[in-house]
Specification:
The complex is a heterodimer. Chain A has no helices and 11 strands. Chain A is mainly beta.
Chain lengths: 112, 113
Amino acid sequence: NAGVMQNPRHLVRRRGQEARLRCSPVKGHSHVYWYRQLPEEGLKFMVYLQKENIIDESGMPKERFSAEFPKEGPSILRIQQVVRGDSAAYFCASSPLKTEAFFGQGTRLTVV
Amino acid sequence: QKEVEQNSGPLSVPEGAIASLNCTYSDRGSQSFFWYRQYSGKSPELIMSIYSNGDKEDGRFTAQLNKASQYVSLLIRDSQPSDSATYLCAVTIPGNYGQNFVFGPGTRLSVLP
């Protein structure tokens, strides 16, 4: 079952370090979405990407956060100089056009 | 402002009862509608999709869509304690280059044994 694969599942970073979260979409899916979720809260949209293009990054903080989905390889969500407030679950979802999106298992980021 | 709204709950129903979950959306251009279930500490799992007005049934689940009223609902018949989870409503917003998924805040369902 080649679903959406996210790694690592758990990531611990010290304040000021960089966090790199990876997402491999379902084979054949060209649309990738990243969401952030705090405990007991809903999914907050961050960014929507297609291969080599950022379609909508309206949910991304202006500083420290970036995302890419290269022609080859997984999508990467990068958080520079992490702070404690970045601690959350980060979910990636992929979709072909005009149908359902499927989620990966998420990466739980803890900043200490 | 493109929004999806749901009652946050918790919604408590006894085992064997029908659970009714509701969702409204603001963008009339929304084309596709989905219900996801999320257990605590887990990722969202797709349980129903609906694209046209009316009802769609899948086992104990029925999704209902009324585009004129901008309303989507999910009925869970014969509710089981294992249905206790947060249910997320999602709609797609079409754009020039694809579609974006907008999620509601979720309704927490508790099925009491």
